[in-house]
Structures are given as structure tokens and as C-alpha cells.
Write a structure and sequence with these properties.
2 copies of one chain form a homodimer.
Chain A: E1 3-4, E2 7-19, E3 25-34, E4 44-45, E5 48-49, E6 51-52, H1 57-69, E7 75-82, E8 93-102, H2 104-109, E9 116-120, H3 131-148, H4 162-173, H5 179-188, E10 192-198, E11 208-212, H6 225-230
Parallel strand pairs in A: 2-8
Antiparallel strand pairs in A: 2-3, 2-5, 3-4, 3-9, 7-8, 10-11
Chain lengths: 231, 231
Amino acid sequence: MNESNPTLAVSTVIFALSRAENGAPGALRLPLVRRIREPFDGRWALPGGPIGADEGLAGAAGRNLRETTGLNPTYLEQLYAFGDLDRSPAERVVSIVYWALVRPDEADAATVGENVRWFAADDLPELAFDHNQIVEYALWRLRTKLEYSRIAHAFLGETFTLAELRLVHEAVLGKALDPANFRRQIESSKAIIATEERLTGGRHRPPRLFRYNQSVELTDNGPLTRAEAAS
Amino acid sequence: MNESNPTLAVSTVIFALSRAENGAPGALRLPLVRRIREPFDGRWALPGGPIGADEGLAGAAGRNLRETTGLNPTYLEQLYAFGDLDRSPAERVVSIVYWALVRPDEADAATVGENVRWFAADDLPELAFDHNQIVEYALWRLRTKLEYSRIAHAFLGETFTLAELRLVHEAVLGKALDPANFRRQIESSKAIIATEERLTGGRHRPPRLFRYNQSVELTDNGPLTRAEAAS
């Protein structure tokens, strides 16, 4: 067997919810970086690059997030390692991909650098390398995890109304959901807990605020959580 | 930033169900390889090593499985990439870990090489590198996936009795399950479908055979399934 030691890179898919006109959660979008050298000079790509000698994999992904958006990671998880033989034209590159989820208030505070632009997650141009496939996979995982974990929480504050939670699900799934069905499903899943608080404002019957059931894990890293946090 | 290009390795956690005395699924075990050089000379480790110049990541993991057990992969999935700074004493190594699941009949046919031995998954010695942590994480993922996917199928034939399915769950979870509760839960999950067949044998009331609902995915690679198969 001829051994190969590929170049290792870390890339990060940064999903954010923009705000709709009325301040509610809007569409799912992500920042991309325009490449300024070959291969794929001029094409848009996921933020990423080599690993620093003194940082772990999650550390490199957190740096991607900071350098691209000025934000510090609150939700960051390893997605998948991509290593097909032909994914980079010149040299062999294996990319370990993380994903970050960014709340609307964090996205408001983001300051994107030169050569960075936000794109709608479901309407991307042809990206460099296999990055379209990577985003497609990240979207699939996000939508799958929405069904069995409290991942939508990463897009919300500590407390939220059922309408806000439904808007997050609608943005991630890319389709409208029936409010009554949604309420029934989410309440029967025991994923959220009603608080005694209600949304403040001048309304006659302000809606109740909910919080996530903390016994359901936000990320499913299991025994890895501490190791990841330390790297 | 000082860049670093770590050495890349692929390692594979190979979970098999041994047979109990009566031929039913028994305990969960995995093959380990004794290291014959530093670091960790003489310690047991997960099968693995460098990637071949002409193989993908899953291809390298499949080769690990073949070289260690003589088996060809039927269930093989990427688990996680481990890249903590201090996980290898001499040089920096990032390991992309796969897991393979092996049925009892496949395990019967396995031929392990020199320096390979089967160990009970819940009673391992101190392994080389961070391999104890990797196995702990793989066990956690296996147990978690058991709850929401048809992963137990990877340890069973096309059809099986409810008792056989329960024995697989018991082996993976490492605890006895109440047969009546198990039957209720598995039937309400719609994960399995009753066939018209019954177990052959001389019994008065042979138990009914079930099969998994094919609309529930075995692996959750989503859009990646084809890419992985091709690599």
C-alpha cells in the first residue's frame, strides 16, 4: 500500500437566522468567503484552512467563526470529515467540517470582513471544492436533528414563545407549519417546559414563554463534551 | 498562527455480537491489535493506520476491518474525528474513526490475525493513545442510536423474532429488559413489521418473524450515502 498523508483542513458551516421585517426569526443563511487564489480563484467557499500548531479541531473551527463574523462560538459541533480522493484538484485535502449555529441577536452583531458575504442557505452559487455537497449535508443534519433534539434552542434565547419556536422550525425546514399541529407535537415531545412568564408588551393576552427541557442534550457529543470544550 | 499539518490516520471500532451458549445473540465485543512498536509498545489499540494513496476514508476503514477480521464491511459508518493536541506523545496525529457492526454469523466466520484478540466491550484494559475514550464514545453513540434508528438490524439477519431483537438490545445496553415492555415499545415505534413467517423448528407455537421497516434509514448519512459508497 502506498501511504498518503493528505493536507488536513478544518472548515465551518455557520448557519444564522436573519430577522424578518417584524423582528421575528427569518430565513436561514450562511457566510461564505471569496477565494483569492487557485484552485477555484474567485469562487465562494466555506470559511476554513489549516489547523494551528497550538489549537484543537474545535479550536480551529471557533477561530473560523471569529475571523469570518467577529462572533464567539456558542453552538459549535463536529459535522463530518470529508476525504474523497478527487475533492481538491491539486493536492489531496481531508477537511474536518464543523457547524456553528448563530442566534438572530448574534447575527445582528456580526461584522463580516472583506471578501465575506451572507448567502441564503437554499440558494447558493456553485461553490469551490465539494462545498455545495457539504452544505447540503449540513442542512440535512440540521433538519434531522430538529426532530429529535432541542437544537432549535441554539437559534433562540433562554425563553421563547411557541410562535417564535415555530418560526425557527419553519426557517430551518423551509416550509410553513400548521400552528395547532406544531403546538400539539412540540408539547407531546416534552422537549419544552412552560414558564410562569409571559411576553412583555402592550398586548391584551400576551403569549406564554417556554424554555427547553435541560435534561435533553443540546449537542449529542455524549462523553466527548468535556474533551471538545478543552480543545 | 503557526500552521500544523498533523499526521492523518483512520481507526475502526469493530463491534460484534458473540453467540450465547444457546446460539442467541450474546455479549458485545471488539477486536484489538497489540502494538509492536513505540509509542505504547505492547499495549492494545484499535485497528488502524495511515490512509492509502488510492483509497478514501471509508475505504481505509473497510481495509482495517478486512485486515483485522477477514470480513468485508456490511455496516460501516464514520463516527468522529479525534484531534486533541496531546493524544499522541511524539507527533501530532488526527484520527478519523469509523465504526463497523458485525452480525454473529459474520463474527463466526472471522479469522483474526496474529496480535489480534477479542475483548468484551465493557471490560477493556488500558489501551494505547485515547482509544479507551474513543470506545466509550462509540458505545455511547451505539446505545443512543438504538433508540431512534434501526441500527440493531446490523446485528440481525433479514428476519428475526422479538426475543432475538430484545437480546441484541440487551447486549448493546448491557442490561436486561422486561420482555412485555420491550414488545410494547418496539411495536409502538413502527420500526419493525410483522411477517407472515414463523421461526422453523419443532415447537408447538413457533414465534413470529419480524423485519425492519425499510423506510427507516439504517445509517443516517443522508445525502452522503452515495459519496461514501464510492470512496
